[in-house]
Amino acid sequence: MASLPSELYYWPSSFYSQKVLLALHEKKVNYKSRIVNLFEHEVNEPWFVRLNPNGQVPLLKLGDKFISQSDSIIDAVDQLNNAPVLVPDSSTPEGQLTKQWRAKLDSFNVEGLTFGVLLNPELAVDEIKVPSFYRMTKEEFRVKSCKSVERLEKLRAQYPELKEAYDIKIERYKKRGTSMFEKSDTVAFMEVLEKLLDEVEEQLRKSRSENIIEHWLCGPRYTAADITLCVLLGRLVSIGLLSKYLDPAKRPALIEYWNQARQRPSVQKGIMGVKSAVLWYQVRKALKKVVAGAAVAGGVVAIGVMIGQKYKA
């Protein structure tokens, strides 16, 4: 497939946005980017819901086509050029293994773990890297969820043509608000992750024994399965859980893997640089407000000067 104009709608710390960012960097695809602020509910704005009825990021505009869902986007991006191949042919052993591991890693409830730890920070064993202005207590989270539902109900009434999309989002927020991400549920997610990463460790050891020179999760090549695993490990860094799972006695192959993966430019840009990307976004946003305020103030001063001159005349 020939290269097409690409524009990515995303949020830097979104798990699924990061997967797509890594794919775009690995494939060296030139793209325009547009940040959609999750914390200010821009995904709920009518302009975005019209583009993506799911009201979620990432969303990729490829030519004249909009593609949602991170795995679908990665599959499409992989077809843009021949190298490197992120999604091997599923008729090959490597392709079958990649497909299996993508599904297995995607089945883990990352949202449950993320919000669960942020709302129960005593579960973290390392420093939580999420900026403090995005953290909240359970009560603050409950109140925010209720306000989000109220805001969505108003939008649904205001834009009846988008009623179906807003109905789905309202139910999603209600479910999230009532679950509250209890500590016991979060501990259960952590136990599931223990078992999953034990399987990852076993697969990495097997891959290392079969591929002497270079080895990744599914073979000698870095694939879409590695993208998901890297983003998952990056998420553990953000929520202060990495050292719990990167135990040298239990998972030496995973530690070696993560040390190797962190050297990749795509991981450095899409995962390790997420905090600075969010902070820089906030700085630019603040600067725009300052500039806009200065422009308004300048206009008021100019009007005042003209009025003063008129009265003097």
UniProtKB/TrEMBL annotation:
Key word Membrane present: yes
Keywords for the protein's UniProt record, in alphabetical order: Coiled coil, Membrane, Transmembrane, Transmembrane helix
Coiled-coil residues: 152-210
Gene Ontology CC annotations of this record: mitochondrial outer membrane
InterPro entries: Glutathione-S-Trfase_C_sf, Glutathione_S-Trfase_N, Thioredoxin-like_sf
PROSITE patterns in UniProt: GST_NTER (PS50404)
Any Gene Ontology biological process: mitochondrial fission
Domain GST N-terminal: start-end pairs: 4-85
Domain of life: Eukaryota
SUPFAM superfamilies assigned to the protein according to its UniProt record, in alphabetical order: GST C-terminal domain-like (SSF47616), Thioredoxin-like (SSF52833)
Positions of transmembrane segments: 290-308
Family: Belongs to the GST superfamily.
Name by which UniProt lists this protein: Ganglioside-induced differentiation-associated protein 1
Lineage: Eukaryota, Metazoa, Spiralia, Lophotrochozoa, Mollusca
